[in-house]
Design a protein that fits this description.
mainly alpha; extended
Length: 107
C-alpha cells in the first residue's frame, strides 16, 4: 500500500495548506475533549498529561509530547510509591522514549 501511495504523493502534495487546515483544526478541537477525563486530584496523572499537551502544542511535534508522557508517567507513579500500577511494557516504552531523547537530532 505504501508503494501505491507513492503514485499519489505528487497529487496530494499539490493540495494547498488552506484546503486541509480546517480539517486539522477540527481534529485538534476533538482532541481537547478527553482532557475532561483527566483526574485533576491525582498529580501522578495530571502532571504527565499536562506535559504531553504542552509539549505537543509548543514543539509542534506529537512524538516529543507522547514520549515525554511515556517517560514522566512511570516515574511519577514510582515516586508516589504506586509502582505496582505500571506494567512491564510501559517500563520498556519508557526506556525507548529515553533513548529517543538521548539520540533525537535537535536542530
Amino acid at each position: 500500500m505504501f508503494g501505491v501511495s507513492l503514485f499519489f504523493a505528487p497529487l496530494v502534495a499539490a493540495i494547498p495548506a488552506a484546503a486541509y487546515a480546517p480539517a486539522l483544526i477540527i481534529v485538534g478541537a476533538m482532541m481537547i475533549t478527553p482532557i475532561l477525563k483527566i483526574d485533576f486530584d491525582d498529580y501522578t496523572e495530571l502532571i504527565p498529561a499536562f506535559t504531553v499537551i504542552a509539549l505537543m502544542s509548543f514543539t509542534y511535534n506529537i512524538g516529543v509530547g507522547i514520549t515525554a508522557g511515556l517517560v514522566l508517567y512511570p516515574f511519577f507513579k514510582l515516586a508516589a510509591g504506586r509502582w505496582r500500577e505500571i506494567h512491564a511494557g510501559l517500563w520498556m516504552l519508557c526506556g525507548l522514549s529515553i533513548l529517543f531523547y538521548i539520540f533525537y537530532p535537535y536542530q
